Amino acid sequence: MALITGLCTFLYHLPQIYKWLLKPYYVTSFFMTVAFLVVRKAPGLCEHLATQRDDGNSCDFDWVSVDAWLDIRLGILYLSLCVAFVMTCKPPLYMGPEYIKYFSDKTIDEELQRDSRVTWIVEFYANWSSDCQSFAPVFADLSLKYNCAGLRFGKVDIGRYGEVSQTHRVSTSPLAKQLPTVALFQGGREIMRRPMVDNKGRAVSWTFNDENIIREFNLNEIFQKSKKLNKGRDLKEEEDPNDSQPEEGSDELHPGTDNPEQLTESKKDK
Fold first, then answer.
1. Long-range contacts, 15-24 (Cβ 8 Å, 24+)
2. What would the pLDDT profile of 207-260 be if each residue is shown by its tens digit?
3. Residues of 161-189 as b/e, b for ≥16 C-beta within 10 angstroms?
4. In this structure, which of 41, 199, 200, 258 has its CB flanked by the most CB atoms within 10 Å?
């Protein structure tokens, strides 16, 4: 079953592998391999080549040439297979349940500033990052547990939206090791983020798991405050269900009008 899965994955990514193999390095390597065979067997050229054969026939392969040729070709083949494995066997993207809003470069600032009472937990990620893919189910599970009207979860792909990466100062360089980055926003302003970044622009080592996220960002405390905010909104709506102004031509009395006949007369006068 694993062999069939690997074969299907290889065939699915075959167009990408073709594009990768058509790079100048591999094309040149292929032609050099063919050229070695052609020159060794081409009359008029092979007579001038050095050989270590006992019979002195330079137009035939000797063991030294064959060993060197095989070592070089096998080395290139091994390297190619390793790179192809990395390309085709990436961890699958998380497709499970979640309460997460995905931002773009045009919507992230607007959503963060829409309601100052809402706290946002935002993950800056890139699809090509294996660390981000490993953290995706953890972040989704946290959104299922803590998402409410006053506490929201969001994600933005800074590998796709480079302007967001510059605006929020999150580097996509693999050397910086800032992916993923989780930040807390209140009132549209960033309050804190993990991992922190040192003076050289490199991320301070930090483990991305649910326990660290809950502890560092005080999710339990924020969630309790958000629940109280939701209850306050519900009570206010129940106490003032008819705050809207009466429409024109309705039979409802306007404030300060005690006699329905006066309202009727005024309408007739109009």
1. 16/87, 16/88, 17/84, 17/87, 17/88, 20/83, 20/84, 20/87, 21/80
2. 999 999 999 999 999 999 887 776 665 545 555 555 444 343 433 333 344 444
3. beebbeebebbbeeeebbbbbbbbbeeee
4. 41
Q: 63: burial class by Cβ within 10 Å (0-12, 13-18, 19+)?
A: exposed
Q: Which helix (H) or strand (E) holds 204?
A: none
* Sheet with 189-194, edge to edge strand ranges: 101-103, 151-157, 119-125, 181-186, 189-194
Pairing of the two strands 101-103 and 151-157: parallel
Q: E strands of the chain, at which residues? A: 101-103, 119-125, 151-157, 181-186, 189-194
Q: Which residues contact 48 (CB under 8 A, 6 or more apart)?
A: 58
Which residue, among 132, 129, 107, 117, has the nearest Cα to 182 in the 3D structure? 132
Number of H helices, E strands in the chain: 10, 5
Q: Whole-prediction pTM value? A: 0.56
pLDDT in tens, 36-51: 667 666 777 666 666 6
d(CA 197, CA 190): 15
Q: Is 122 exposed, middle or buried (0-12, 13-18, 19+ CB in 10 A)?
A: buried
Length of the chain: 270
Q: How confident is the model at residue 175 (pLDDT cuts 50, 70, 90)?
A: confident
Q: How far apart are the first and last CA of the chain?
A: 85
| Helix, strand, coil share of the chain (percent; to 5) | 50, 10, 40
At CA 154, angle to CA 173 and CA 97, rounded to 5?
Answer: 110
* Cα–Cα distance, 83 to 72 (Å, whole number): 17
